[in-house]
């Protein structure tokens, strides 16, 4: 398959970009150096309004890159200590900020001009290009990152919730460092990835989640890439939501792009060393509805071997000790008091913490600038044994190698170790804790093991080897079912930019994100579910690598009234993942070593994909008020068949600043911009989906198995196209800002798998098809509510709402199940004309007018046979956030209220709790029974209802709930909740020591803050759990399944600058 | 100088406009898998090995793509409960009360058609040109599919496993006709073979090690089983096929019985699932085995800590309150202790002997024996199979005159108005043909244990009144008696709509329900 000379040469270039450039650029980084200086003087002066010459009170003056600063007094006067080389930043709402470098002066008067056109607002766009916001033809939102490192979350993605219009957030109960799911503008792909692409410093990051549960049965979610990024290193985040913003990033950007810029040193900056410590404590936020009246047992009779709470009323009577029946070593009293244990579950949890310690240094002169940081994070989750330790090391160097040649290099090393990442769902710690019999004291079940006569560790639990009693002792799981996840990750890039002339430049860059991942799972003998007598051990070792090499040739020039910015570039993406898994039952009991495994079944997984791309974009500006944007990109993907492997997609956008075009002079309307764009983005698929695969297993001399997936040699690329319209306006001298966006996206020709008749020999088939439409609105409103003297109060609201509609699936197929067939209580079905995210459950048979049909003999309702009742859609009706920032002298207060309104969530936890008689739901009718509100039908021989009478048959709670609820509930109608919730997401109260207190000491700034996350719900319609927590982070949303409790985090932050 | 640089860069970019995709096909080839064009003779054994294991138990464990839950869901929660071989410990398992659960049944269907059938297809492809191998595959195909059609009625057969958007269902009648044709031809081929083993299968064949004669007799015994199945619906074919099978030669001794030799990768799932999912001995088993003083009682089941064997009535309510004595489980100390060492029963010599006995009762030409001699030989074969080799013990059993005993929880049946055990015949060969038929049915029921699929089919065909009714039912149409068939799957209705609807139209009553008879079950 060798190409022509030309293409060989081309390939050579790509290979050069892949292999050599990286090393070369890093070598060059050694050439860079820095100097530093420090001598402090007091600078004072007056700030005036430029137009009127009047003094401006309340203007903020800050030394750039620090928290040190002051504000002007009522006469517009200020005084600040600064060193030569410092940059003073003067800011005041409604005025253009000014930056002035400190030289030898001691007095500095400044005039601020009112900021009509907001010239200064800059957004980082594709390829790290900073562009004025007014020139952007699509929706881009810049996120304040002030609270990221203070109101800290272990996963940066969690800090985005409530701050971005159109961003939907959910997390899972995997404990510390867990993955979360974010989507922008809803879901676009039927069964593929719906999460945005993360770009760090211009280089795409691998954010793949290797595995996450696809049913309400639950399981483990692996850690995604963003979860280990250090929040301290982030300088800014901008979110490009629709495909038009992303047209240039190609393939993976069709779900939007989140662009993260990390910190770097700046020229003329003196050496700044900063040390900070952030300590947050977390506690379980208990919302559960557990009953405290009836204890362990069945049919009203105490049974020490059951996990059910269908026993007698707890009145302090003596009952046989729980362990007597199976623990031969039990030495405690033969009876214990049968009394309510209201907190027997919550006592299992501990106070968790998250302690981050950071030291960072930045410095720079005209030729070289550097930023260095090291953060160590240690964290304990609320579940004993669930711990995290993370080291982030970051070095960034920018340097002018010559007046025309610029070097930018970053190396980021991350080591992370997570102990005992948690499962959701069945067999999880959450299930073990919540379903604990209501009479079981914590002091008893915490004795999770005993040593038998043979000296072996045994599970101190009734019937431990029974699958039908999956509910485990959580204390055993925490200590005897162990897991360690380690990640060693390198992210780095190097780029060289050569300015041929002022107008023409060429940048070449290579970026690498490479991780070594390992997971060890050790299960002690006698753990339930794993049915073996000696324990089991498994190891998985993997490497993921994403290498991007690109070049960009740019030309910028002004021709009279026209400004022209034309670029052309190319990218080579190499994405590989490989995993090796070995595991099995042990031979020597509880000796966890690979060599001790009695029967092996090693497996390995591969993923290898290349995408080569060429692209170009042009922007033409007219008189700095009208802008036209055009982009074009062509990709060649190795995952598509040769004849469909190349695909092209363009975008076009137009924006105009109406206030400037028509010279509007208004006291009300300061600025008005309209924008519109159309874009399409192509998408490929995973590798190895073209030809039929045959698996060969070397066991027992050899076994051959066909893959159950019917692959497709004729796949075509997916195309997502979108239209977007937006208005940005500023009112009352910029006191109020409004950004409104309307969009409409259609994704066609999707690549997904459909269920086929299994009798064909295949379970699923890879096909092209499907069309999904997303329509929505996004509003961002900010206002300077108060700005009087040293008191300031700014508010930013965001609101978004979207609707996703399935226009078609494929010919002769009106319905697509994204479920596996083993669901307990809910399935996601995608139906033509329906919404994406519709949840279907089993439920009660009803009459045409909605009355529940009841079996007159048993008193039990009649049930639908399949998952044929629509319970609702998991998507919210709307999302909103309100971010407040208040400051008074040295105090700052910021808080974020986050609202999610509408959407449904189905709780497997509630179903199971009702089934075992543990929830308050099961109190009614325990002894005398209750009568289901419904009717009993009389039917003719055809089964048609001829008449109905009101049901009068009573049924006992236990007979009712063990059928209706439980593990395979016959009706999930009782467990569907509204996901509407409003919460105080973040709160930060900060105080900076005044300069005069610091005096001539070594410190240039000291900042304290008290922070809180998830402090309380203002409203939570799901009542008994946090609806934000889902069974996993995949496309199956709206299902809650034994997530550990959401946590309330309170902490302290100290930051010292030298 | 500067201009030159620009020229070079421009040139490089122009060159880049030619895409670099030369090695893309190689990159997009999974290094972990083979392709279908590699299915040559060396792949015949490995494909057959998989078709064997997946075709028997509908399950595997260690081989990726499956887990032992499949056996639990499709066999333990269906035929094992329908035949009252076992009773579920978890009262939530509704199939114990003839309830229907789509997910459990679906798993069996899915694994059969997406794992077992494609493996068989691969084995055919890889065995091309090898007549003996193809004949064995034909026999195995009949074995795999007859259980499927006997459970569901019409199922995809002739068009199964070869792809396509709509897969037609075959009528059971046409499938049986094809079964007989395949078995007849296979016997002819194997009989004529000059070889004694099939080389390409040898070490991969965990049933007979590629032994041609054993496979031939297995095929003929299967033919006898299928012939008897047609006793009521097509007596003349039944007779012809049965006699042809016997003439060709059937399994005569326990050394010819078909077992799958398990390994640490291909387990005996019954051992694990019965144990870990908490299945109990049934009241029916307790009643018969205790009444007959059957030595197999303590071989199959375990006494509780009080030394008692206690069976659970099948179909108990969802909230069970019998707690007077601990229920017995399978014998996990010896017989069903080791999932690696206990081979899986496929077809036992005793069954063939009981089939010969029934054929003789029908007046068919079944060789040199009589109904009684085949009946008694079947009993000996079964007892010997389970380790009862002492001939006086066997003779004592065969001469037994006691009938079934009341089980421990007989009072639950008394509450239903049933005061005597359904098995009212002794082991000792009785005087009337009706009694003899029932005796054969009871002994065959015991002889088949724990192969519940055949037991369930035989219970439906013979309509032998040997089981207690369920205590409760979740299926008003079927009631408390034996389930008649499995219903089709939601995925077939949503993906193979026309084909499944056509098939449903041919079911008696035209409804896809559990109380409709399959083709051969005319009573």
Descriptive account of the structure:
With 1058 residues, chain A is mainly beta. Helix content of chain A is 7%, strand content 47%. Chain A contains nine helices and 58 strands. In chain A, the strands form 13 sheets. Chain A has a 22-stranded antiparallel barrel. Chain A is globular. The N terminus of chain A is likely disordered. With 523 residues, chain B is mainly α. Chain B has a single domain, classed as Alpha Horseshoe (Serine Threonine Protein Phosphatase 5, Tetratricopeptide repeat), CATH 1.25.40.390. In chain B, helix 4 crosses helix 5, helix 8 crosses helix 13 and helix 13 packs antiparallel against helix 17. The longest helix of chain B has 25 residues. The N and C termini of chain B lie far apart (100 Å). The model of chain B has no long low-confidence stretch (mean pLDDT 92).
Question: Tally the helices of chain B: what do you get?
Answer: 20
Structural class of chain B: mainly alpha
Shape field of chain B: globular
The poorly predicted ranges of chain B are none
The structural class of chain A is mainly beta
Mind telling me which CATH architecture of chain B this is? Alpha Horseshoe
Question: Largest inter-chain interface?
Answer: A-B, 99 and 98 residues
**Computed CA radius of gyration of chain B, to the nearest angstrom:** 26 Å
Please indicate the percent range of residues of chain A in DSSP E strands (runs of 2 or more).
over 45%
Which range best describes the helical content of chain A: under 10%, 10-25%, 25-40%, 40-55%, 55-70% or over 70%? under 10%
Instruction: Give the CA-CA distance, first to last residue of chain B.
Output: 100 Å
How many helices of chain A?
9
Quick one: how many beta strands of chain A?
A: 58
Q: Which oligomerization state do the chains in this entry correspond to?
A: heterodimer
Rounded mean pLDDT of chain A is: 86
Helix share bin of chain B: 40-55%
Number of domains of chain B: 1
Biggest sheet strand line-up of chain B: 1-3
Which runs of chain A of at least 5 residues are low in confidence (pLDDT < 50)?
1-10, 16-38
Order of helices and strands of chain B: HHHHEHHHHHEHEHHEHHHHHHHH
